[in-house]
Structures are given as C-alpha cells and as structure tokens.
Amino acid sequence: MTRTESETLFERFCSNSRISFLRVPEIHTKTPDYELDIEDQRIIVEVKEVTLNKEEKGSARILKKRGYGNVLTTTPGDRVRKKIADSSAQLKARSQGKYPCALVLFDGRPLSDHLSPYNIRVAMYGLEQIHIAVPRDPSNSPYATGKSYGPKRKMTKDHNTSISAIGVLSVTPKTDVIDLNIYHNKFAAITLGPKLLGKHRISQFKLEDEVPGKTAQWEEIVVQREP
To answer: What is the pLDDT of residue 74?
Structure first.
C-alpha cells in the first residue's frame, strides 16, 4: 500500500525514536492507521495530512499566471476541526473505550499556519471571544470585561472524548529532523500519559489552569527523566 508523505514521516519518526508501531490493514471499513506499543501501552493513532483546499488550489493557479494569488480568508482552526470530525468515529470504534487515541496531523507547506499552536487550541476549545460591557450612561464608552472560549469547539466533556490528544508532525528544513508535538485533550476519557511520551523526544502541551476573564493558553509539560 502506498504511503502518504505524512505516513512516511510518522513511520520514520517512530523508527528514529524507537517506538514500536504496527500499520493497521484497511479491509472493508476505514480504520485508524497505526497502533503503537510503548511500554506495553497500546495507543491508537490516525495520521492525516492537511492539503490545499479548493480555494487554495485556485489561488495557486492564479499565482503562477500573474505573480500573486487571491486573498484567502478562513476561520481559525477550521482545517483542524475538519480533521477531527473526519477521524473521531473510527478512533472511538478502534479504541473500544480501553486505549488512548491520538490524531496526528502534518502540513508540509512551509508558509502554512493551519497547524500552529493557536489554530490547534481554538479548534479544540473554541474561538476566543471578548466580553464587552455597555454602561447605562451613554457618555461612558463600552469596555472589555474579559475573554473566554466560545463557538466552534470540537472538544468538550461530551464530544470527542475518545481523542486523547492532537499531534503535529513537522520537519526542520535542511536538517530533515522530524519532530512531534502533542497537545493533550483536557476532556479525554482516557489520557495519554505524559511520562510515556516524554521518554521519546516528544514535546507535550496541556491547557493551563483556567483564570476567570482569560482564555487558558498552552503550557509545556516538563517530564522529569528517571535516572
């Protein structure tokens, strides 16, 4: 079976990091791509690639003809939301409620920011919204009272809890070093142990503790290495 670029890179990363992996054969129904075995813990993984959509392809064609493309607009996190929606059912079915699952994404275009930490965060937890208070006295200007996560969230206590984390594969130019960043889902039914991944050169992030009036940001999980 032909491997996509993202699958090839993922397998290379696992091999370089000495992570045991098994590619799951697709027989009659769509299944997640891989099962990992880390210290006897099975982890279900789906690997997906972010590619040009219809609007981006059209802009690329125009770019070749006239030297500049169309102005493209997109809602932050939309491409990640679609990948979550496309993967959640098969990950849930394969995990059987017993194993942690990860959706690993890759975008090989150097100038693309579809998989930036910000886009991952608002795709998972919702668009950031600013709360505005309007004084009764019209001579006083409206003022911001705080921020919170709002619509278009894919991760809640009732939705996509089978996805333990979102992973982002990247390749460092010139060196061809492959990295994997993991963004943990705070609503996951089965968590993906940070210590398990910390031994394999994987950077991990979780949402910081919530503070009223602010939107929680990513904070890196520091794993203490055992002697």
So the answer is: 79
